[in-house]
Amino acid sequence: MIRAEVRVMLKTGVLDPQGQATRKALANLGFDDVDAVRQGKLIVLDLDTDDRSAAEAEARAMAEKLLANPVIEDFSVELVDA
Amino acid sequence: MIRAEVRVMLKTGVLDPQGQATRKALANLGFDDVDAVRQGKLIVLDLDTDDRSAAEAEARAMAEKLLANPVIEDFSVELVDA
Lengths: 82, 82
Prior knowledge:
Chain A is α+β, with helices and mostly antiparallel strands and 82 residues long. Chain A has two helices and three strands; from the N terminus they run βαβαβ. The termini of chain A are close together. Chain A binds chain B through residues 1, 7, 9, 19, 22, 25-26, 29, 31, 33-49, 58, 61-62, 65-67, and chain B through 1, 7, 9, 19, 22, 25-26, 29, 31, 33-49, 58, 61-62, 65-67.
């Protein structure tokens, strides 16, 4: 079993209203040295394989087809020891 | 400026319907060797400080107070080079 983590973040320049709302809420709580907040998704996949390169390729294919929206989001894939 | 990444994941044992839906959608696309999917949040904070230990403590405080729900979620904080 190989665990892959897919990080999905909005592309630079794409408005992130969720991050802006979080920044304002943090400021209201007194955390006023926060310059910027961006919020993304972290998708942890347990893959039933022992082939690390195949696992990485598969996770990338999943991100391209389903997990990320390539118009507005970037993604990266990392294999971790489960 | 120090960048802190807060990872927020549902605790083990807490039902993750979003992850389950993603797993089913992946299976429908032909990715049938996915044992489990868990979906979490990744919050990237740009902090206006140069003190790494203060930045980490502040990010932890933000996670405890706002970013994570301690009843059902775990979080971890990592400082990254911006």
